[in-house]
Amino acid sequence: MKKGRVVVLGIAATAALAAAWMANSLISRPPEVQQVETTVGATDVLVASKDINLGDSVRADDFKWQQWPVEGVTPGLITKESQPDAPSELSGAVARAPFIAGEPIKDQKLIKISEGGVMAAILPRGMRAVSTPIREETAAGGFILPNDRVDVILSHKQKSGRKEETVSEAVLRNVRVLAIGQALENDDGEKVVAGKTATLELTPSQAEVLTLAQSIGEISLSLRSLADAQTTDESTAPIGDDGSSTVKLLKYGVPSRSFGVN
């Protein structure tokens, strides 16, 4: 073999080995990862510390501060930087909409008692708030409080032959007391809330019954026990829901008299 050819073959073999080594190095080398440090700003946002239901009166411990990305802070959210005393300032407000734990608090969903509109905010859909005059002796000695359950009793005079006697009849049963006077809730430790009126949560048909009963005689409220208030039976059904033009008054759960609705 000629010397020149040997040299050429040697160079070719060397080049081939060099190419194979370079290819193997590129394949086995791990890819370079470029680390980019990014800093995301955060701020404290007021959120619900627990579930808050519609109509609940909130307290300061119902809220907490939680870290929130600055870019995610939308108008309406309450930040610690802008309102550091927000938990105490919002204490006593009423929830106009429910909150779930961890949900950001918005002023639009809370209403302060001093701002008005509280009663409409706490009324469930389809219910009505109707007030009736009360006296201490006709309202369980003044021990009926907001959120208690009561029976509404009508006392009136009724003729029996030539005699006139006073009768009492239960016209509504197991209805919720929304307020006594203008008090929507009793303060801690307060056992009696004074007021000359009681505002009850009623269905539209129950509201008609109560209005009619007020024109017939004197209204008394009978306080139900907590255990009894949780029961649901026929005695709790609204009176007058049959669509008739009369309102039936119940005595011991039995229809005793009917009055026409004008």
UniProtKB/TrEMBL annotation:
The keyword Membrane does not apply. Coiled coil: none annotated. The keyword S-adenosyl-L-methionine does not apply. It comes from the Bacteria. Residues 43-111 form the SAF domain. Residues 1-18 form the signal peptide. NCBIfam families: pilus_cpaB. This is Flp pilus assembly protein CpaB. It comes from Methyloceanibacter methanicus.
